[in-house]
Structure formats: structure tokens, C-alpha cells
Design brief:
By secondary structure, the chain is of the alpha+beta class. It has helices spanning about 15-30, 45-55, 75-95, 100-105, 115-120, 145-165, 175-180, 215; strands at about 70-75, 125-130, 130-135, 140, 165-170, 190-200. The protein has a four-stranded antiparallel sheet. It has a two-stranded antiparallel sheet with strand order 3-4. A hairpin with a 5-residue loop joins β3 (about 130-135) and β4. α2 (about 45-55) packs antiparallel against α6 (about 145-165). The chain is globular. The chain starts with 15 loop residues before the first helix and ends with a helix.
């Protein structure tokens, strides 16, 4: 059995005032994040995407298995393939696969099966979850809490991209198996989230929605 060596956890302790100020600064930045569907085609710094992914990879994971892979797509031909495949699935979903209750929930957002942002956004980040690992000899390695671990990593990723001044969309066409085929990923990986990334278009508009206030989501005991 392998045991990880330990190292001192060194981090400066903030005063209460500093801690509150840091939390408020993060909140102010987080509140700038909106789901964007109208992107500019202007180029973005790929290094910013890589740094955001590095932040995502710092997320906690079950037994430190780190069951995630990230694919950055900027090739126009591959983005076109992804759009065509996604729109096929989305068309079927909007025209018979999704129950009426789901369609009613989506109606205020005015979305439909057309996903032009998959080509317009300068980059797509496709997040894959590793349902199990592969040892050097090809044997399966069990991963634990895969969905929870990858979900936390995606939260880190979205926060980091937002902090970098980039707009994002969390897109989950269902089913998403076409992403594994187009991107030629191994059999132990399953698509988890498709994230268009870029700058918002000059004419971009977003729904005027409100988030629940603390009084509705926090209980102090």
C-alpha cells in the first residue's frame, strides 16, 4: 500500500477583516458571470484557458483520483463537426424527446435546437470524466465519487474563466457520446460538459434573472 508523504500546510492567516474583504471581492467577480449564447469571434489567449484548467485540476477528488480530462478545441473544422452533431441531438430533444414540463421550464430562456455559438466561440472546452482509470498494464483502476469530483472541478473552471474576463456557456446536449467519437477519446472517458469560451458579442443580451438571496438558501444553527 502506498502512503502519500506529507508536507506542512503553509498559508498566511488573514484577519477577519481581510477574510471578509477577500470573500467580498470574489463575490463581486462571481456576480459578473452570466450564461452567454452570443459570442464574439475575436481570439482569446489560450494560456488563460490553460491556467483556468490548471485551477480546475486543483479541485478535490475522491481518493485523489483526479478523474477528469479537458480538451481545448479551436480548430474550425472540428467545431463545425461538433455543432452539426450537437444540433442533431438537440433537434430531436426539442421535437419529442424532452417532456413538456422541461420545455416549459426552458421557454422563458428562449432557447432552441440551433447552437451557432459552437462555431462562433473561439474555443470550446470539452470536459470528460474518467469512469475508471487504466493502469500501465491496461487493468481497470476504480475511481470514486466521479460525478461529484468532476462537478467540483467544473465549478473551479467556470470561476477561473470568469475571473479571466471570459464568457462561458455550460452546454449539455443529450446524449453527448458524439464528443468522444469526434475527439477520439478512450473508452474509459465519458463527456461531462461542453463549454464554449470567448468574449461576449458587442450586441450580447442575457435574460434579466435574479439569484436567490441568502435568506432563502442559508440556515444558521
Amino acid at each position: 500500500m502506498t502512503t502519500y508523504p506529507t508536507v506542512p500546510y503553509i498559508r498566511e492567516r488573514l484577519s477577519h477583516e481581510e477574510s471578509i474583504a477577500a470573500a467580498r471581492a470574489f463575490l463581486d467577480t462571481a456576480l459578473l458571470r452570466r450564461t452567454v449564447r452570443e459570442f464574439s469571434g475575436d481570439p482569446i489567449p489560450i494560456e488563460a484557458l490553460e491556467l483556468a484548467i490548471a485551477a480546475a485540476a486543483s479541485a478535490p477528488s475522491g481518493a485523489n483520483m483526479q478523474p477528469w480530462q479537458f480538451v481545448i478545441v479551436t480548430d474550425p473544422a472540428i467545431k463545425q463537426q461538433i455543432r452539426a452533431a450537437a444540433e442533431k441531438e438537440e433537434y430531436d430533444s426539442y421535437n419529442g424527446r424532452m417532456p413538456e414540463e422541461w420545455l416549459r421550464a426552458l421557454a422563458p430562456l428562449q432557447t432552441d435546437w440551433r447552437k451557432e455559438f459552437l462555431e462562433i466561440a473561439p474555443a470550446l472546452i470539452v470536459v470528460f470524466k474518467e469512469e475508471y482509470g487504466l493502469a500501465a498494464d491496461g487493468a481497470k483502476v476504480t475511481h470514486y465519487y466521479v460525478n461529484e469530483s468532476v462537478g467540483i472541478a467544473c465549478g473551479f473552471l467556470l470561476a477561473a474563466l470568469n475571473a479571466a474576463g471570459l464568457a462561458t456557456l455550460t452546454h449539455t446536449p443529450s446524449p453527448m457520446g458524439f464528443l468522444r467519437e469526434i475527439l477520439q477519446r478512450p473508452k474509459n472517458e465519458k463527456p461531462y460538459l461542453l463549454i464554449p469560451v470567448g468574449y461576449p458579442a458587442a450586441e450580447c443580451r442575457v435574460p434579466d434573472i435574479q439569484k436567490k438571496g441568502l435568506a432563502k438558501i442559508v440556515s444558521h444553527l
